[in-house]
Amino acid sequence: MSNSNFTLDHYTKMQHILYWIAVVAIWVFFRLIFDGVVLEPFVNKLCYLPSQLLLTYGLLYYVIPWLSDKQYLKSSISFLGLAYLSTTLARFMKIYVYETIIDEGNEKESIIEILTQISHILVQYVIWVFLIPIVTIMILLILNHFRDKEKIYALQREKKIAELKFLKSQVHPHFLFNTLNNLYALAIQHSPKTSDVADKLHQILHYLFYKCSTDSIALNDEVTLLLNYIELEKIRYDNELKVRFDHQDIDKDFRIAPLMLLSLVENAFKHGVSNALTNPLVEIDMSIK
Prior knowledge:
The chain is mainly alpha-helical.
């Protein structure tokens, strides 16, 4: 069934059995409600059931997969063969089982007559044989449609999570080690900047590992992350580094995917400032279009 839109692999045998029991039970129930009889519709349905099983699974396992593979001749021949076999089987069961139990006095047709009266079989039995298989296939189509949508959503979700983890991993480890070294040096010097550096580092790590696990986040939170990052980088360069960050006229409630901007800013320091011989400068202009 891998070549068809209809897949049965995820349905257990017990689910199949319960489905067909339900089909018979529903048919008998409605005949009981409207006609007040049980035995006749029960026997009648059991006579049609083998034909409907043959047609249903023949279509699902052979005709539809071949049709999906564009094997039109093969699928057409198999469809006609299934139609003939299922309707002939239904007529045979009707004559030799149903009429034996319900209408014992009727004269029975021979096997040869059953097999050769094709027009009579098609006219009288096609609708009743094909009805349940068609409904069954439609139910499977609907169920598989929703199942496929769930799979696609799950894959998209996993992809986003993987991308987010990748972005988190892009925060250069040297930045973390350098910040910890700076924090250690400030602590030894009893600098008043120690607590501020520790707080900004805490905010960055908290944002990376907890706040940005959603699909989108307010731009204001990303700006705060960038400001904390810039302040920690400026400590490494003392007063030599100059940073201009223009972000005042933007909509702070505008939502973007998390961590889209940090890698860009980090690369400006990593590949720009670190290579500057004198007067390192970083200019950041943020706008929304």
